[in-house]
């Protein structure tokens, strides 16, 4: 796809389902659609269990979609297999939440970075050692000579996450799924990781799906924010617009619980029950917790409708 105005990634009506008791299924991702342009960051926000990480795993083909389509550069990659997945992962990579669990404790930093370089290297003239030094410099892990020989347990949490980012960059991807990359790090070093991701976006025209439950970091790094609940998109808008003018009751609930938000206050929910993910459910997934709920909310699923420029909400009673 050569048109610069076209998205790098396009997801249409993505469905992921898992079997439970008997012949029943749950849908942690149910009809989700979005697009991401080259060099853009989409922040995906929601509580634990909202389907955020499942979407990320579907995008890197760790989870098989049950419906919908995933396109990268205009190519349908929804159900690719074998060699095509290997080729695909040269364009799409993932950084996981746990920077220790995602690294092999018995391999050095050098070994972690050499593996993808050798596995995916197309140009046999590439100097692997020089490329490792370049990657470590790029993510701020210096002096390089010392860092190369260290094992994960010899690094801080922030350093381990920088190694994980360097490993993702080794194959020169166009798109990275960052699954809560700062949630397990000390507060004092989270800003450094976010700044690194921002710098990489600018330097490499790298696109990100940034998965988080933290609206502050979502606003800092994301061009747009998409709010997810019960596997459904509740609201999506440019970051500043969404935080200034939240329209969905669930978005307002998240902001009410966010320190420093001008919307901070008493939580306006009527229950704390988990969403119903069973296939065939009816109505809005947030209905059991919504302070504005009506009988229509329990029976009819609200469509995602446009409120203004690039601002959409799925609610029968938007603000």
Give the SSE order as H and E letters: EEEHEEHEHHHHEHEHEEHHHEE
Identify the CATH architecture of the largest domain.
3-Layer(aba) Sandwich
Ends: how far apart? Answer: 38 Å
Instruction: Count the E strands.
Output: 12
Instruction: Find the structural class using helix and strand composition.
Output: alpha/beta
Strand composition percent: 15-25%
Number of domains: 2
CATH topology of the largest domain: Rossmann fold
Low-pLDDT residue spans: none
Q: Using the alpha-carbon principal axes, give the shape.
A: globular
> Strand order across the biggest sheet?
6-7-8-3-9-10-12-11
**Tally of separate helices:** 11
Based on CA atoms alone, the radius of gyration comes out at 20 Å
CATH class of the largest domain: Alpha Beta
What does this structure look like?
This protein is α/β, with parallel strands linked by helices and 319 residues long. It folds into two domains: 9-91 and 173-313, P-loop containing nucleotide triphosphate hydrolases (Rossmann fold); 107-168, no CATH class. It has eleven helices and twelve strands. The longest helix is centred in the middle third of the chain and has 18 residues, at 187-204.
In short:
This protein is an alpha/beta fold. The chain has helices at about 50-60, 85-90, 110-120, 130-140, 145-150, 155-170, 185-205, 215-220, 240-245, 250-255, 295-300, and strands spanning about 10-20, 25-35, 40-45, 65-70, 75, 90-95, 175-180, 205-210, 225-230, 230-240, 305-310, 310-315.
Furnish the topology, listing elements before pairings.
Elements: E1 9-19, E2 25-36, E3 41-45, H1 52-59, E4 67-72, E5 75-76, H2 83-88, E6 92-95, H3 109-120, H4 128-138, H5 144-148, H6 157-169, E7 175-179, H7 187-204, E8 207-212, H8 215-221, E9 224-229, E10 232-238, H9 239-244, H10 249-256, H11 295-299, E11 305-308, E12 311-313
Parallel strand pairs: 3-8, 3-9, 6-7, 7-8
Antiparallel strand pairs: 1-2, 1-4, 4-5, 9-10, 10-12, 11-12
């Amino acid at each position: 796809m050569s048109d610069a105005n076209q998205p790098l990634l396009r997801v249409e009506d993505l469905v992921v389902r898992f079997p439970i008791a008997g012949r029943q299924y749950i849908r942690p991702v149910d009809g989700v659609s979005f697009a991401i342009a080259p060099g853009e960051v989409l922040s995906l926000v929601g509580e634990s269990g909202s389907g955020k990480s499942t979407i990320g795993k579907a995008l890197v083909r760790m989870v098989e979609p049950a419906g919908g389509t995933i396109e990268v550069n205009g190519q349908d990659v929804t159900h690719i297999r074998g060699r095509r997945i290997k080729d695909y992962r040269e364009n799409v990579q993932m950084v996981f939440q746990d920077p220790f669990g995602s690294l092999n404790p018995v391999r050095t930093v050098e070994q972690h970075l050499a593996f993808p370089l050798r596995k995916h290297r197309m140009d046999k003239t590439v100097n692997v050692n020089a490329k490792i030094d370049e990657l470590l410099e790029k993510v701020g892990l210096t002096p390089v000579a010392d860092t190369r020989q260290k094992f994960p347990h010899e690094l801080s949490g922030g350093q381990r996450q920088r190694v994980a980012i360097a490993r993702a960059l080794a194959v020169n991807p166009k798109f990275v799924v960052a699954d809560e990359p700062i949630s397990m790090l000390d507060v004092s070093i989270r800003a450094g990781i976010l700044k690194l991701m921002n710098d990489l976006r600018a330097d490499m025209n790298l696109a990100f799906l940034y998965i988080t439950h933290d609206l502050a970091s979502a606003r800092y790094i994301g061009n747009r924010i998409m709010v997810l609940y019960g596997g459904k998109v509740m609201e999506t808008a440019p970051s500043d617009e969404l935080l200034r003018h939240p329209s969905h009751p669930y978005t307002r609930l998240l902001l009410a619980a966010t320190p420093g938000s001008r919307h901070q206050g008493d939580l306006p929910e009527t229950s704390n029950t988990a969403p119903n993910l069973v296939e065939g459910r009816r109505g809005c997934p947030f209905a059991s917790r919504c302070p504005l709920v009506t009988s229509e909310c329990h029976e009819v699923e609200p469509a995602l409708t446009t409120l203004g420029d690039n601002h959409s909400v799925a609610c029968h009673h938007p603000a």
